[in-house]
């Protein structure tokens, strides 16, 4: 008698999950620490414009409230701790110089949260921008070390703050490299990126690979200066 796979007791493998089958994130509240700076403000504007509930965080409540009022789209402005406490997902867009200090102060408020670090450790001299390497390896790995009870990912490094903030720009045609330890978390961040027209989130590995992603911003700054552009990235064949 010929044995079938069922007869032999084997269990058919479930079909592979479509990597572009991403979760619905429309109901999540997104907080942006450093939301009064150019990058944070631009991300807050784009996500709010796409229909996401957004809270801007700042060290000074009045600055956050002013920036939120200017952005409209029901964006709310709060002091950093309250922003972190009330958000489901928290984007870290603070200057590199204040990165560690900010996260250390918010460890309790960020516990259990999905944290998206988009900080680029860079230095500048007469020859232009160059990458810095933190002791932990990258800004994202520093965040993970400082926030042991948070789910830390890395994304949104290569976006032009000019394009993000320009209301005349309808689409931003670029890919967002997303890194993290848990696929469920990186899927959520990819889905957030996809809320912005023209943008696509692409899984790019674990946090140990974040340094080269953060460092590439120094190259993009050189591209932008040479060609008077607002360059982004596209990943081909995926």
List keywords for this structure.
single chain; 238 residues; alpha/beta; Rossmann fold; 8-stranded mixed beta sheet; two-stranded antiparallel sheet; 35% helix; globular; disordered N terminus; P5C_Rdtase_cat_N; cupric reductase (NADH) activity; NADP binding; Oxidoreductase
Structural description of this entry:
Residues 1-22 are annotated as: Disordered. This is Oxidoreductase. Keywords: Oxidoreductase. InterPro entries: NAD(P)-bd_dom_sf, NpdG, P5C_Rdtase_cat_N, STEAP_metalloreductase. GO terms for molecular function: coenzyme F420 binding; cupric reductase (NADH) activity; ferric-chelate reductase (NADPH) activity; NADP binding; oxidoreductase activity, acting on NAD(P)H. There is one protein chain. By secondary structure, the protein is α/β, with parallel strands linked by helices. It has a single domain (29-227), classed as NAD(P)-binding Rossmann-like Domain (Rossmann fold, 3-Layer(aba) Sandwich). Helices cover 35% and strands 20% of the residues. The protein contains nine helices and ten strands. The strands form two sheets. It has an eight-stranded mixed beta sheet with strand order 3-2-1-4-5-8-9-10. The protein has a two-stranded antiparallel sheet with strand order 6-7. A hairpin with a 2-residue loop joins strand 6 (122-125) and strand 7. Helix 4 (99-105) packs parallel to helix 6. It is globular. It starts with 28 loop residues before the first strand and ends in an 11-residue tail after the last helix. The model is unreliable at 1-7 (pLDDT under 50).
């Amino acid at each position: 008698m010929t044995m079938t796979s069922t007869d032999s007791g084997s269990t058919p493998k479930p079909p592979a999950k479509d990597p572009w089958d991403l979760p619905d994130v429309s109901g999540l509240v997104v907080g942006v620490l450093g939301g009064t700076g150019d990058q944070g403000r631009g991300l807050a504007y784009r996500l709010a414009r796409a229909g996401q509930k957004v809270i801007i965080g700042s060290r000074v409540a009045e600055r956050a409230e002013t920036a939120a009022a200017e952005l409209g789209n029901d964006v709310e402005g709060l002091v950093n701790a309250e922003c972190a406490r009330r958000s489901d997902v928290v984007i870290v867009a603070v200057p590199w110089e204040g990165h560690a200090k900010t996260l250390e102060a918010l460890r309790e408020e960020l516990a259990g949260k999905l944290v998206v670090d988009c900080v680029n450790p860079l230095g500048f001299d007469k020859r232009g921008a160059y990458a810095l390497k933190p002791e932990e390896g990258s800004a994202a790995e520093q965040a993970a070390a400082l926030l042991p009870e948070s789910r830390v990912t890395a994304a949104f490094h290569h976006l032009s703050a000019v394009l993000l903030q320009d209301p005349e720009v309808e689409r931003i045609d670029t890919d967002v490299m997303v890194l993290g330890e848990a696929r469920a978390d990186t899927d959520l961040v990819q889905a957030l990126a996809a809320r912005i027209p023209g943008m696509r989130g692409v899984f790019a590995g674990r946090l140990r690979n974040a340094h080269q992603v953060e460092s590439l911003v120094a190259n993009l700054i050189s591209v932008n200066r040479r060609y008077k552009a607002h360059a982004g990235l596209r990943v081909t064949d995926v």
